[in-house]
Amino acid sequence: MSRRTISVVIPSFNEELSVQEMVDRLTAVFRDELPQYDYEIIFVDDYSTDGTRAEIRRIAKTDARVKAVFNARNFGFHRNVFSALTYGSGDATFMLFGDMQDPPENLPEFVRAWESGKQVVIGQRRSSDEGFVMTGLRHLYYAVIRWFSDTTQIPRFTGYGLYDREFVRVLEGIDDIQPFFKAVVAEYGLNVEIIQYDQGKSARGKSNFNFLRNYDFAMQGITSSTKLLMRLATFVAAVIGFICLGLAIFVLINKLVNWDSYDVGEASISVGIFFLGAVQLFFIGVLGEYILSINSRVTAKPRVVVGERVNFDPPAAPAVAQAAPAAESHDVVAEATKDELESRP
Question: Which of 168, 25, 30 is nearest to 88 (CA)?
């Protein structure tokens, strides 16, 4: 019976300081706790600007199990993570991130759950080094998702986990240039095991995710998970419209009855105008987020463009390419036969 293989994929961006440590810790896990498995370690670098690629190349020269996929440019977190999961050739794919916040040493626990029949085994953060403000904003985000989403997302889940080959095949069939991975797992992960863990501190010292990236992450999650927010805009507009109509009728009647003494007043008019304007601007902004999300999904272009692969087997030559010389020879022979026939008396 052949040994099963686990592919480890590591989406990376500017992780020069942690590449060697990541390989050492993963190698120790397979050597000491999972010796019955073959493995490959695939770094998927999203166009790092430091020495990450040079460090990966250095290690790959001495260890054929260390491989790399280098994107031709930076395509962003979501696109890189989703593509990374499709590069492994193993029976299961283990994904963790290059900053060492998610410990490789949890892999044996994930494998035990996978061996028991779970198709998707994911890690859920029990604690992290995030500040009070960011933690509070995340709780608010997941509360909004829980209230409005069609499929509830798994809170405090980053993508760190072990995915069976069958689930990876499902991902390969999703034709979306910018899929939101957390929503995909929530919708298509039909046999999921959640394992609690404590997230460590980034080897980089600080996260790559600033406020704008976190905002983009949150907006993509909301627009990928629910239609109710746009429908809420319609309901709120209808309610406000009825209220404004009632106020208009009230003001008109009072003005007709008390023509000389009733004064509508500039203050109430200004408040009403500003209130309605604020509501309109808010929902125009929400509509804009949906339009941006739709635009990014319907654009017909590849999810990522790979600039270089390291330690991967060269692709097999297609059958058509092999048959081409034979076809060419056939044409030459046919042409020669034609000339021969014409030269005969």
Answer: 168
pTM given for the model:
0.72
Report DSSP letters for 150-163, one per residue. SSPPPTT--S-EEE
pLDDT tens profile 315-336: 655 444 444 444 433 333 333 3
Nearest CA-CA partner of 142 in 125, 154, 160, 129: 154
199 neighbors 128 (Cβ within 8 angstroms)? yes
Mean per-residue pLDDT of the chain? 79
The closest of 250, 252, 244 to 276, measured between CA atoms, is: 244
Helix 165-172 × helix 181-188 angle, to 10°: 120
Count of residues in the chain: 345
Neighbouring CB atoms inside 10 A of 98's CB total 28
Distances (CA, A) of 261 to 8, 86, 257, 266: 79, 75, 9, 15
At 33, the amino acid letter reads E
Q: Do 67 and 42 touch, CB atoms closer than 8 A?
A: yes
What pLDDT, on a 0 to 100 scale, did the predictor assign at position 308? 95
Neighbours of 177 (CB within 10 A): 17
The answer to whether residue 241 scores a pLDDT higher than 60 is: yes
Contact 207, 98 (CB under 8 A): no
Residue where the block lists tokens 């942690």: 18
Q: Specify which residues 192 forms β-bridges with.
A: 120
* DSSP SS3 for 194: strand
d(CA 162, CA 243): 53
CA distances to 55, 97, 147, 156, 288 from 153, rounded to whole Å, are: 36, 20, 11, 9, 23
Tokens read off for 201: 């501190």
Amino acid in position 25: R
Q: In what order do the strands lie in the sheet with 92-95?
A: 192-198, 120-127, 161-164, 92-95, 5-12, 38-45, 66-71, 306-310
Distance CA 36, CA 29 (A): 11
**Spatial contact of 162 and 236, defined as CB atoms under 8 Å apart:** no
Q: 120 pairs with which residues across the strands?
A: 163, 192
